[in-house]
Amino acid sequence: MKTAVIYRSHHGTTEKVATMIQQALGSENCMLFNLKTSKNIDLSAFDRIIIGGSIHAGNIQNKIKEFCKNNQDLLLEKPLGLFLSCMEEDKAQEQFDNAYPEPLRKHALSCKLTGGEFNFDRMNFIEKMLIRKISGINDSVSKINNDKIQELVAEMSD
Q1: Among the four residues 48, 51, 55, 97, which has the most C-beta atoms within 10 Å?
Q2: Beta strand extents in 12-132 (DSSP E only)
Q3: In terms of Cα–Cα distance, which of 95, 101, 83 is closest to 156?
Q4: What burial letters (b/e) apply to 12-37, b meaning 16+ CB within 10 Å?
Q5: pLDDT tens, residue by residue, 118-146
Q6: Using an 8 Å Cβ cutoff, are 55 and 99 in contact?
Q7: Are strands 3-7 and 30-34 parallel, antiparallel or unpaired?
Q8: Spatial CA neighbour of 61 closest among 28, 35, 30
Q9: What's the structural domain count of the chain?
Q10: Pairwise CA distance, residues 46 & 2, whole Å
Q11: Cβ(52)–Cβ(18) under 8 Å?
């Protein structure tokens, strides 16, 4: 099956997860599309679609919201997977529900919270200060959940 993994990454974590999904599905039949640079994606060329974004200040990127809204009808016709990179485990499900429209969540074969990272090397001064103040974390930390990524791949492969 030909798969499109469509994502938007701010500090690289969602891109890392998207790449892990691509490797698990097989890169010969799986293409990555970063909505930062990919503008017109022909969804009709793919058998299944996986969409991922990350949470910043409680919200998913606008590019992901716009993409889902503008392509909802076509996305509802194909096997769909959704994932979200986020660090606030206690708020993760609520953030996921707010990130993706309900019709897409209900239609999706797989909906996964894949954990997240605070990558201080890729943050500006203000971002670092906010993270330190809000979370109490002072150094880069990764909480990517490999098990959830493998579950998504398995559910999309059935």
Answers
A1: 51
A2: 30-34, 48-56, 59-60, 80-85, 110-113, 117-118
A3: 83
A4: ebbbbbbbbbbebbeeeebbbbebee
A5: 777 776 777 767 766 777 777 776 688 89
A6: yes
A7: parallel
A8: 35
A9: 1
A10: 5
A11: yes
And the tokens for 31?
């293409």
Phi, psi for 62 (deg, rounded to 5): -60, -35
Give the DSSP H or E segment for 4: strand 3-7
Single out the residue of 132, 130, 95 nearest to residue 114, CA to CA: 95
Angle between helices 13-25 and 146-157 (to 10 degrees): 40
Residue of 6, 97, 99, 24 lying closest to 54 (CA atoms): 99
68-126 pLDDT per residue, tens: 999 999 999 999 999 999 877 778 889 899 999 999 999 999 999 998 767 777 767 77
Domain CATH number, residue 54: 3.40.50.360
DSSP 146: H
Token pair recorded at residue 53: 């974004």
- Gap between the Cα atoms of 8 and 156, Å rounded: 20
By residue range, what is the domain housing residue 7? 3-157
Q: To which H or E segment does residue 5 belong?
A: strand 3-7
